[in-house]
Task: structure prediction
Amino acid sequence: MLAVRWYLRYALLSYRDVEELLAERGLVVDHVTVYRWVQRFTPLLIDAARPCRHTPGDRWFVDETYVKVPGKWIYLYRAVDLDGQVIDVLASDHRDLVAARRFFTQARSHGGRPVEVTTDQAASYPRVLAEQLPAAHHVDARRAHNRIESDHSQLKARLRPMRGLKCFRSAQTVSSGHAFVQNVRRGHDELGVDADPRLRVSAAFAELALAI
Result:
């Protein structure tokens, strides 16, 4: 849990950095093992935290950003609400109707129904919103989605030291894990609520460790 928390929480740490920090504490672990721990336990932590999450607000901001895996760029669909909660993240090989439909289906599973959804001007969004959220007002004016663009920068700051991701699965795991830790830090769930704010993430991981 310590290795996974460090890696997801601190933007400048690589797997080798975590290996070194563990070695300073007398724990001899190869950086490849740290990578495997992150891939194995991050989805379990996210699933265990799901019942503790707050219901997303009723104004959503949706956009895609790009990340690089060996040999190609892939898309990350992301959504945040007005309070800054990351609603969901989805890695996709394509930026099309199928991907947008899948993303909204997944995002809606967290509960709540937005009254307003702000997106860029991608052609797929009007159709998907008409299918899945017909009552929601759709905003696609230029610069209207600056809030989600700003939030992308938090993820990019985490990915930058990594100099690319190893594979598609890693892109999904790390970006989802980053969103999970970001939500904990911002108080968008009931984890670590009695802890000192500086220790909220570590307290949340300790609680979740009991669940997995």
User: Anything to note?
Assistant: The chain has two domains: 2-53+189-211, 59-154.
